[in-house]
Amino acid sequence: MTTLRHTIRRASPSALSIVITGATGTGKEVVARAIHAASGRKGPFVAVNSAALTPTMAENALFGHRKGAYTGATSDEPGAFLAADGGTLFLDEVGDMPIEIQPKLLRALENGEVMPLGASTPHSRGQAKAGATERPPQKGRFFVLGADSTVFDGIDSPDALA
Question: Using alpha carbons only, what angle is made at residue 129 by residues 123 and 131, rounded to the nearest 5 degrees?
Answer without folding.
Answer: 130
